[in-house]
Amino acid sequence: MTASPNLRLPAEWEPQDAVLIAWPHAGTDWAERLAEVRTTYVALAAAVTRFQPLIVIVADAQVRADAEAALRGTGVDLERIRFIELPYDDTWLRDSGPITLVSDAGFQLTDFRFTGWGGKFGADRDDALVAGLVTAGVFGPAAHARVDWALEGGGIESDGGDTVLTTWRCLHQRHPDQSREAMDAILRDSLHARRVLWLDHGYLEGDDTDAHIDTLARFAPGDRIVFQACDDPADPHHEELERMAAELAALRTPQGRPYRLSPLPWPQPILDQGRRLAASYANYLVVNGAVLVPAYGDAADCEAARVIGAAYPGREVVQVPCRPLIWQNGSLHCITMQLPAGLVT
C-alpha cells in the first residue's frame, strides 16, 4: 500500500495491538548468564500478557521450545503469545524493530538502518529484522519504508503530535559528518515531525548506546517529561544530569509552555566485576492499561514506580526485575517494541 502523507509517530501511551520481543538464547550475548536473564523475560511476558498480546521472535524450533518450557506454569497466558521464527543477532528490539508511523489511512513501518550502535557489534541479521517480519505476515497492509540512515528506536521519543526528542551525543556518533541542521531535517522528514528537540547533556556510565533518550527522558501525557535525575553530588553523573535537567526546564511545548517535569530517583551504583552498569528508571514500558517499570533491587525502586505511575494516571504500575538486563547495558524498554493498534494481522 502507499503510505498516507498525514503520518505521525504515535506516543507510546496510545492503544497497542501487541508488544514485540526476541527470546534470548545461547547464540546471543546473553549466553554467559542465560538462566538469569530468562527470569526477566518470563516476568516481562507475564506482565505484558495480563494486558495485551505478546509477539516473541525465536531463532528456531528449539529456541521456541525452550521459551515455551520457560513460560509454561509461570502464570503466563500462552494463548496471548505468538511465536515468529526469524534469525537475529541479539534481543534489543527497541533498536532493531519497526518504528511504526500511523495515520487515519494506515501504517508505515519505517525501517532505519541498524548498525549495531555505530558499528560496535555485528548487526546484519538485526538490520534485516523488519523486512523479515513483513515477509512473515505479522503486519496488515502497512507500507514498508526502508530509510538508509542509521537510527535506533531508543534514540527518539515522540509526544504523539508533532515533536520528537533526541540527544546530540547519540546522533552525532552515528553521523559525525552531518550537521545538526541536516540531521534535524532528516528526522523531521522521515518521522513526519514538525520539530525536533535536542538534548546536549545526559549520559549513563556503562551505556553503549551513546546516550539513547529512552535511558534519560521520556514524554508522558499532559505535556510531561519524566527524566532520570541524580541527587548525589558525589556521583560522577551529577553535574551532567543536572545540566540535562536545566535543558529540559528550558524546553517549551508547541504552545510555548514549559513542560511539567517529573524527576526520577537515583539508584545506588550497581557494579559487575568493577564495571558500573547503566541502571535507569526512565527505561520503562507503557502498555494498554499499565506501565511496566524496571526494578533493580534498590531502595529507590518503589519511589521510581510511584513517580512513573503518577505520570500515567489510571494505569496499573507493574515492577519488572531488570537487574540481569543491565549486565548487557540495557533495560526494560530496550528489549521491547510496541506495535500500534490495528497494525498486527
Question: What key phrases describe this protein's structure?
Answer:
single chain, 345 residues, alpha/beta, L-arginine/glycine Amidinotransferase, Chain A, three-stranded mixed β-sheet, 18 strands
Detail the topology: elements first, then pairings.
Elements: E1 16-22, H1 34-49, E2 54-58, H2 61-71, E3 81-85, H3 93-96, E4 99-103, E5 106-113, H4 116-119, H5 124-127, H6 129-135, E6 143-150, E7 157-158, E8 163-167, H7 168-174, H8 180-191, E9 195-199, E10 217-220, E11 224-228, H9 238-250, E12 260-264, E13 271-272, E14 275-276, E15 285-287, E16 290-295, H10 301-311, E17 316-321, H11 323-326, E18 337-340
Parallel strand pairs: 1-2, 2-3, 5-6, 8-9, 11-12, 16-17
Antiparallel strand pairs: 1-18, 4-5, 7-8, 10-11, 13-14, 15-16
End-to-end distance: 15 Å
Helix/sheet category? alpha/beta
Low-confidence parts: none
How much is the average pLDDT? 96
Compute the number of strand runs. 18
What is the string of SSEs from the N terminus onward?
EHEHEHEEHHHEEEHHEEEHEEEEEHEHE
Rg, please?
A: 19 Å
In the CATH hierarchy, the architecture is 5-stranded Propeller
Assign a percent range to the helix content. 25-40%
| Strand percentage | 25-35%
Biggest sheet character: 4 strands, mixed
CATH superfamily: L-arginine/glycine Amidinotransferase, Chain A
What is the CATH C level class, in words? Alpha Beta
Strand order of the largest sheet: 3-2-1-18
How many individual domains? 1
Q: What is CATH's topology name? A: L-arginine/glycine Amidinotransferase, Chain A
Give me the number of helical elements: 11
Shape descriptor reads: globular
Query: Could you state the oligomeric state of the chains shown?
Result: single chain
